[in-house]
Write a structure and sequence with these properties.
Layout: E1 5-7, E2 10-12, E3 27-30, E4 40-43, E5 48-52, E6 57-62, E7 65-66, E8 74-83, H1 91-96, H2 98-101, E9 118-124, E10 127-136, E11 145-147, E12 151-154, H3 155-164, E13 170-174
Parallel strand pairs: 4-13, 7-11, 10-12
Antiparallel strand pairs: 1-2, 3-6, 4-5, 5-6, 8-9, 8-13, 9-10
GO biological process, one term: cell wall organization
GO molecular function: glycosyltransferase activity; peptidoglycan L,D-transpeptidase activity
Organism: uncultured Pleomorphomonas sp
Length: about 180
């Protein structure tokens, strides 16, 4: 499931599984929920993305999430999906990251692109949140707080998810539980 594969004219390298915590590898799990099948639930504190299936089951994927100050929670809809997406770093990212500034005009899709093999574009209403569910060229970062708010998956996992969910899929992002009010 994590071996090398050819996809869209590119090679997705095999994942060195010694660098990824096995708890974050894709698997079907029990997942009792009130959410209807087809919903994506992202549990950022646990670092899992669940695609709700029938009969109290879900496909679970390990994820990398937003680092301190970049995490978010809420509800969104996948309004667009792309294979080997181009990357257009937001202006705020360009201001803080010289590597991103280099790609202000966009980085073409491919094996070196930080969005990886697939991207799901998250919208609230008709407004692009600028957050994505996307692949990564750094599978060893799965299970950590590393992104600028996007949800990243191993490339083989984001390809699997891409085939399972249509545009219009509901995404619920659960953030850290705030401390109780004093």
């Amino acid at each position: 499931m994590y071996s090398e594969m050819r996809d869209g004219g590119f090679t997705v390298p095999a994942v060195d599984l010694t660098l990824v915590n096995p708890a974050f590898l894709r698997r079907e799990v029990d997942y009792p929920t009130e959410e209807p099948p087809g919903t994506i639930v992202i549990d950022t504190p646990a670092r899992y993305l669940y695609l709700v299936l029938e009969d109290g089951r879900a496909m679970r994927y390990g994820i990398g999430v937003g680092r301190e100050g970049f995490a978010w929670a809420g509800t969104a809809i996948i309004r667009r999906k792309a294979k080997w997406p181009s990357w257009h770093p937001p202006v705020e990212m360009q201001a803080r990251d010289p590597k991103a500034r280099k790609w202000a005009g966009g980085m073409p899709g491919g094996p070196d692109n930080p969005l990886g093999a697939r991207a799901h574009y998250l919208y609230q209403g008709n407004v692009d949140t600028l957050y994505r569910i996307h692949g990564t060229v750094e599978p060893w970062t799965i299970g950590s707080n590393v992104s600028s708010g996007c949800i990243r998956l191993i490339n083989q996992d984001v390809i699997d998810l891409f085939e399972r969910v249509p545009v219009g899929t509901l995404v619920k992002v659960i953030g850290p539980t705030p401390p109780p009010a004093v």
